[in-house]
């Protein structure tokens, strides 16, 4: 006797149904007349009539459009409308079957609840469904349904509500929407008396992801559960589970969507986990639908379900099927096993029927050979039932296990997985562990691959493994072919893995394979050759040719030189035809003749030629099939085009050559657009070689039409003009469908010009081919003036010289070119060209402009130019040379004008030019005092410079030593971490990365190559400001400049010494030689200190962070004893040299 522990709520009427919401926050209670909503504390929130007649808040409002009365149904339909509507008949509830209780079903989110209750209409007790919100508001009233039964279930995903009805001899499951409208229905199978009142539907229940609908049915002597799945809007009965004891409850697991819990009246609980799987044999696929099994022969075609090529009917529902080698086994719900054989007509014929034990649940039906079938039975114990089939009988054998078994498969032995995830291998009755790297949970599907001795498993955690080694995670389905394993991930990307790779199993290689996106929810069915079949979430089948499988097939064809089949397959499947070459470049080039002979089709070969490009498709597009490949020959396109073209043009059979001639034209254009003209000339030659003129014209028209497909009409027309064949140009223009007004006047204009060279000249001008135009124009008589004008207009003097160099008009052309060069101030070349044109007056003018007084005087003497014309020209040249500080040359010009007349001017120029010996030799006798004063003054000035240079060298060298010492100290402090790099780098950002041999600063990656930064650095290098970043660079540059001055001073000092001796000033000469010699010795000695032969880090000029800047812009400080990764050889880093071979000293003054 059950006693109430506590009374929390006392309804006024008899309770007919109650149900908690999924979150247990609201309790819905139905009494005989009312419905109440209570909180978890049993406080009434809302109370209302159980079957109100008012309209719900979300109920669909309609004025009758689309109803039965408004639809056209013909004469039969009109008569049917006159009678009563069977859908709206009032069929009373059968009290013998229906207990008149109220069914309540919440949706998964708890937002609304559906209530199936009994109420009276016109005195007849019928059932109706009302939908309420969790707050107790009426949402909608469902459309009345004749013969409605008490079962009710709300779909977890979406707004569908399922119920059943029995109308006449037909029982259906009907679906309503939230707004109360009936959406659709499906009829239950006829066997097991499902369509009679003898059978009652105890419950309807969806699984968690709403993919399976369980129907619990019972009658007096048995109970069973039907499991339905929808595909293409067709509900199929996939599994029937019978029980001898009555069932108490059928419930789906809340977390594992495919797991169902079933309890019987005797207290036993069964847990079943369902997984969608596809089994195929020789491209025959069987789909189960109760007693009907649909047979689809994929080799004949892809038929969208629920259609099929044939059907197999059985007396009982089919639960599982499996096939191998043309033998199919069918497991029925009544524990019968039927064996079918695939006949030559690809039809299934029954061979054997075998009864299994009634007790227990059979699952995981497998076949590993045409004569061997096995299945797992779960009863008082677990056992693998093995059946050996012969023509006379079927023998049973058992492998018993006390531990629950999940699945089994066959290799040379029997492999089973236990519920704890461990695998066992059974051979001749003995058991031993089957070694896997590690267990990865229950396996939903497994396949033994005999070729690689591999066990491929897909676990319940969606991990795909090979012999326990992880292949991929998040896998939804997989299928195995002859050479490949294909799988679709849970993010719906398909990958293909070669079975050979699974033996080595490189996870990185598999992870880097290219994906192919597929539709969400797609599942692999099977694969064959290059074809892959998938079932879409709606249920229809889709056939694709997987690229990876296709390339694998093409590789085999290419290896056997089956070029025609490979080319046809490539075009059909739109595969990059570069693969013909990229697969094995050397082999293809050696077999070009084989390729052309095998294909022997202009269209196919043209497709290959047009697809050629410089990239390697085995590296870029098809890298999955070609691991570890490198790039192809960059001259690939040129090599192939030349080989194929020479092969086609070398065909001896004239008819076959004409048939394949378009291939040669394609090779011309594909190799280079510049060869279009060669292609047109080849067309002209080939068409003219045809014996019959009319056939030749037809072929030419055909070939030109082919050219128009490859080359733009305008470009092709211009190339045709370049052949100077106006008939070809006219034909191209006509095929391009241009307006005749566009091209006829142009072509007629060309025809008017005679001779032929003149016509070619005008065509070249039209095509902007000026060099060719000039060559053709030069061949025409009596048009020299036009030729000169053409040369001037287009500045074609170089070409003109080349053409006319050995012709009669060469002098005129040289003169024309000389005038152009004179206008460009290129007087040297102008003088040369005027001499070729024999125009001496112009040559003199060029010499004057060049300030070449020597050549001017020589030519003027030769021509007999009088002094009246010569003197002004020389004075002009003297003035020009004086502006250029060419004092020695100015003195020579004045000497030619008259040494006595311009003596003072000549002496002044020699003083300015430091030509002391010449001054002494020429003017000491006449201007002794002035010459001696000038020599002495210059000697004293040089001595002053020598002293200044020496002091500056000392000052700069001493400062440089200090700067280098400071840099060394700073560098050592940075290496030891005793100094802040950020402050020394003047706010530049550094990052520290240390290693054994180097440290990296945080300096931002700035490029010193920018022109703006380069100018800033050059400006800093010229600043001698103490403490500057580039002070050592400035000091080195300043010292180097002094060295250059000292070196350049040697010649003048040598002349000064001789001049001083001539003037009788030996003491000053001795002093000058000694001091200048001492300076050179000092500078030579100092050079090895300033620019040491072996340099260290501190000897490198510039700031430390710039010295250590690497190529990537990052500053990395080397450790002690190491140098930077790279050193920039700046000009100041190169040691200057003072020449030692200059003979400037007087030996008499040297100390012995």
From TrEMBL:
Which positions fall inside the ELP1 N-terminal second beta-propeller domain?
288-525
Q: Which residues fall in a compositionally biased region of kind Low complexity?
A: 994-1010
Q: Which residues form a coiled coil?
A: none
Annotated ELP1 first N-terminal beta-propeller domain residues? 12-254
The ELP1 alpha-solenoid domain covers: 547-749
Specify the ELP1 TPR domain's residue ranges. 758-893
Subcellular localization(s) per the UniProt record = Cytoplasm; Nucleus
Q: In which pathway does it act?
A: tRNA modification; 5-methoxycarbonylmethyl-2-thiouridine-tRNA biosynthesis
A GO BP term here is:
tRNA wobble base 5-methoxycarbonylmethyl-2-thiouridinylation
Domain annotation ELP1 three-helical bundle: ranges: 925-1081
Superkingdom of this protein's organism: Eukaryota
Q: Where is this region: Disordered?
A: 992-1023
Q: Where is the composition biased (Basic residues)?
A: 1011-1023
- Keyword Cytoplasm belongs to the record: yes
Citing just one GO molecular function, the answer is: tRNA binding
Record key words, sorted: Cytoplasm, Nucleus, tRNA processing
One GO cellular component assignment for this chain's record is: cytosol
Family stated for the protein in its record: Belongs to the ELP1/IKA1 family.
Q: What does this protein do?
A: Component of the elongator complex which is required for multiple tRNA modifications, including mcm5U (5-methoxycarbonylmethyl uridine), mcm5s2U (5-methoxycarbonylmethyl-2-thiouridine), and ncm5U (5-carbamoylmethyl uridine). The elongator complex catalyzes formation of carboxymethyluridine in the wobble base at position 34 in tRNAs.
- Recorded protein name is Elongator complex protein 1
């Amino acid at each position: 006797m059950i006693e109430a522990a506590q009374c929390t709520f006392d309804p006024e009427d008899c309770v007919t149904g109650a149900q908690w919401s999924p979150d247990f926050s609201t309790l819905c209670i139905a009494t005989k007349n009312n419905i109440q909503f209570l909180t978890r504390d049993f406080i009434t929130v809302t109370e209302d009539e159980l079957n109100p007649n008012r309209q719900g808040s979300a109920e669909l409002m309609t004025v009758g459009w689309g109803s039965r009365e408004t639809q056209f149904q013909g004469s039969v339909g009109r008569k049917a409308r006159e009678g009563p509507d069977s859908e709206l008949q009032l069929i009373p509830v059968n009290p013998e079957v229906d207990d008149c209780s109220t069914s309540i079903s919440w949706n998964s989110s708890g937002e609304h609840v559906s209530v199936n209750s009994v109420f009276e209409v016109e005195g007849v007790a019928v059932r109706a469904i009302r939908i309420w919100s969790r707050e107790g508001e009426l949402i909608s009233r469902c459309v009345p349904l004749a013969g409605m039964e008490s079962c009710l279930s709300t779909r977890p995903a979406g707004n569908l509500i399922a119920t059943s009805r029995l109308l006449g001899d037909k029982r259906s499951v009907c679906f309503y929407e939230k707004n109360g409208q009936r959406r659709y229905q499906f009829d239950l199978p006829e066997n097991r008396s499902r369509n009679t009142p003898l059978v009652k539907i105890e419950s309807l229940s969806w699984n968690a992801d709403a993919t399976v609908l369980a129907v619990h049915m019972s009658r007096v002597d048995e109970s069973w559960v039907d499991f339905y799945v929808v595909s293409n809007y067709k509900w199929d009965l996939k599994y029937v589970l019978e029980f001898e004891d009555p069932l108490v409850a059928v419930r789906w697991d809340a977390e594992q969507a495919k797991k169902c819990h079933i309890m019987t009246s005797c207290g036993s609980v069964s847990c079943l986990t369902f997984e969608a799987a596809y089994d195929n044999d020789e491209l025959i696929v069987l789909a189960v639908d109760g007693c009907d099994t649909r047979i689809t022969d994929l080799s004949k075609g892809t038929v969208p379900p629920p259609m099929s090529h044939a059907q197999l009917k059985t007396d009982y529902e089919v639960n599982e099927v499996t096939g191998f080698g043309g033998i199919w086994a069918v497991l029925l719900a009544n524990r019968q096993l039927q064996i079918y054989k695939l006949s030559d007509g690809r039809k299934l014929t029954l061979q054997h029927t075998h009864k299994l034990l009634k007790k227990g649940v059979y699952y995981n039906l497998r076949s590993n050979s045409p004569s061997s079938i096995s299945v797992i039975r779960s009863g008082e114990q677990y056992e693998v039932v093995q059946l050996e089939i012969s023509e006379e009988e079927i023998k049973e054998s058992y492998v018993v296990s006390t531990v629950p078994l999940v699945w089994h498969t066959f290799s040379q032995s029997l492999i089973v997985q236990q519920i704890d995830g461990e695998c066992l291998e059974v051979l001749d009755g003995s058991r031993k562990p089957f070694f896997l790297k590690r267990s990865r949970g229950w396996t939903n599907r497994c396949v033994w691959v005999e070729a690689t001795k591999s066990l491929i498993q897909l676990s319940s955690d969606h991990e795909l493994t090979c012999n326990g080694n992880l292949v991929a995670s998040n896998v939804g389905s997989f299928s195995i072919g002859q050479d490949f394993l294909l799988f679709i991930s849970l993010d719906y990307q398909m990958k293909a893995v070669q079975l050979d790779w699974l033996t080595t199993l490189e996870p990185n290689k598999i992870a880097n394979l290219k994906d192919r996106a597929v539709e969400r929810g797609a599942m692999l069915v099977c694969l064959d050759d290059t074809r892959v079949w998938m079932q879409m979430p709606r249920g229809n089948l889709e056939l694709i040719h997987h690229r990876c499988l296709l390339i694998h097939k093409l590789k085999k064809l290419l290896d056997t030189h089956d070029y025609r089949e490979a080319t046809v397959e490539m075009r059909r499947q739109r595969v990059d035809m570069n693969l013909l070459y990229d697969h094995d470049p050397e082999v293809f080039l050696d077999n070009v003749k084989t390729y052309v002979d095998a294909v022997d089709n202009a269209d196919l070969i043209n497709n290959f030629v047009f697809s050629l490009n410089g990239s390697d498709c085995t590296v870029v597009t098809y890298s999955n099939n070609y691991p570890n490949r490198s790039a192809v020959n960059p001259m690939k396109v040129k090599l192939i085009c030349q080989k194929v073209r020479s092969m086609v043009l070398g065909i001896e059979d004239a008819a076959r050559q004409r048939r394949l001639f378009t291939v040669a034209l394609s090779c011309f254009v594909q190799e280079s657009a510049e060869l279009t003209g060669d292609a047109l000339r080849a067309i002209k030659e080939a068409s003219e070689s045809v014996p019959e003129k009319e056939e030749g014209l037809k072929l030419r028209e055909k070939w030109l039409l082919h050219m128009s497909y490859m080359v733009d009409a305008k470009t092709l027309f211009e190339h045709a003009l370049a052949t100077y064949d106006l008939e070809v140009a006219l034909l191209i223009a006509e095929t391009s469908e241009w307006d005749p007004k566009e091209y006829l006047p142009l072509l007629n204009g060309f025809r008017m010009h005679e001779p032929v060279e003149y016509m070619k000249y005008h065509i070249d001008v039209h095509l902007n081919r000026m060099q060719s135009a000039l060559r053709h124009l030069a061949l025409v008589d009596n048009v020299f003036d036009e030729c000169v004008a053409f040369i001037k207009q287009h500045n074609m003097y170089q070409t003109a010289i080349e053409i006319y160099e050995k012709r009669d008009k060469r002098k005129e052309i040289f003169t024309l070119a000389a005038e152009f060069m004179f206008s460009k101030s290129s007087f040297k070349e102008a003088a040369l060209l005027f001499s070729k044109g024999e125009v001496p007056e112009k040559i003199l003018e060029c010499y004057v402009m060049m300030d070449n007084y020597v050549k001017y005087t020589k030519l003027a003497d030769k021509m007999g130019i009088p002094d009246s014309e010569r003197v002004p020209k020389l004075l002009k040249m003297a003035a020009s040379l004086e502006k250029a500080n060419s004092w020695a040359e100015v003195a020579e010009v004045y000497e030619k004008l008259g040494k006595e007349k311009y003596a003072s001017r000549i002496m002044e120029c020699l003083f300015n030019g430091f030509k002391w010996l010449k001054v002494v030799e020429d003017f000491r006798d006449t201007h002794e005092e002035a010459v001696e004063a000038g020599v002495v003054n210059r000697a004293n000035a040089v001595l002053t410079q020598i002293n200044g240079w020496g002091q500056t060298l000392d000052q700069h060298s001493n400062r440089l030593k200090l700067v280098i010492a400071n840099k060394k100290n700073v560098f050592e402090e940075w290496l030891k971490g005793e100094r802040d790099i950020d402050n020394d780098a003047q706010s530049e950002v550094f990052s520290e990365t240390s290693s054994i041999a180097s440290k990296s600063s945080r300096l931002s990656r700035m490029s010193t190559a920018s022109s703006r930064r380069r100018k800033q650095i050059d400006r800093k290098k010229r600043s001698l400001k103490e403490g500057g970043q580039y002070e050592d660079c400035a000091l080195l540059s300043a010292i180097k400049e002094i060295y250059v001055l000292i070196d350049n001073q040697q010649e003048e000092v040598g002349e000064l010494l001789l001049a001083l001796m001539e003037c009788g000033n030996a003491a000053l000469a001795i002093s000058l030689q000694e001091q200048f010699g001492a300076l050179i010795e000092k500078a030579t000695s100092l050079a090895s200190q300033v620019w040491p032969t072996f340099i260290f880090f501190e000897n490198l000029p510039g700031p430390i962070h710039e010295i250590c800047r690497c190529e990537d812009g990052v500053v990395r400080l080397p450790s002690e004893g190491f140098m930077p990764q790279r050193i920039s050889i700046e000009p100041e880093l190169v040691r200057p040299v003072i020449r030692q071979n200059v003979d400037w000293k007087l030996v008499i003054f040297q100390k012995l």
